[in-house]
Specification:
- This protein is 54% helix and 14% strand.
- By secondary structure, it is an alpha+beta fold.
- The strands form 2 sheets. Strands 1-2 form a two-stranded antiparallel sheet. It has a two-stranded antiparallel ribbon with strand order 3-4.
Length: 109
């Protein structure tokens, strides 16, 4: 009786529809994921670029070393900070207030 059940046209059509629906849902989900990932990466790039433009506008050179002249903010935790390195990898400006330790491996790279 089991083989007869699988030969039924109704069962075979139902299985084909389930398979077709699964393929369509997987394709749609993949498309949404890829589009959202691209959009979020573009927004992140734009945000980083705008912050960079603000920082570049405040860079000053004192004795050949780049420094930043940022306005003092209220004391407390901040979400962002600026750190400027010279060509030798040394820190010339750091207003992170210890929030983000410097990875020596990245400085030397």
């Amino acid at each position: 009786m089991n083989a007869r059940f699988l030969r039924s046209l109704r069962v075979r059509l139902t299985l084909w529809y389930v398979l077709l629906l699964a393929v369509i849902l997987a394709g749609f989900s993949g498309g949404v994921y890829l589009a959202l990932r691209q959009h979020l990466n573009e927004n992140l790039d734009d945000s980083i670029d705008s912050r960079l433009q603000v920082l570049l506008a405040t860079v000053e050179y004192n004795g050949g070393e780049p420094t930043l002249d940022l306005p003092a903010e209220e004391a407390g935790e901040r979400e962002d900070f600026a750190r400027v390195f010279n060509l030798d990898g040394g820190v010339t400006f750091d207003d992170s207030q210890g929030q983000a330790p410097i990875d020596e491996g990245l400085v030397e790279a």
